[in-house]
Write a structure and sequence with these properties.
Uveal autoantigen with coiled-coil domains and ankyrin repeats; mainly alpha; elongated; coiled coil; 71 residues
Length: 71
């Protein structure tokens, strides 16, 4: 029947949407893990007394921005 066909189309559309959202979630989780890994590497290096110049510049910029925001 027409109603049954419409329901099947809706189910197909919802399943496609679920698949798309699952892929987006997996991509976001992978990106998050990569960012955390990089952060940990820089943090460990800083704790050992080594800091990349770009990282140090970025941290100083963050500190300045926070000070401007808090004042």
């Amino acid at each position: 029947s027409n109603t049954n066909k419409r329901h099947l189309q809706q189910i197909d559309a919802l399943q496609a949407q679920i698949k798309s959202l699952q892929q987006q979630l997996a991509d976001a989780e992978r990106q998050h893990r990569d960012v955390v890994s990089i952060y940990r590497t820089h943090l460990l290096s800083a704790a050992q007394g080594h800091m990349d110049a770009d990282v140090q510049a970025a941290l100083l910029q963050i500190i300045r921005m926070r000070q401007e925001f808090l004042c």
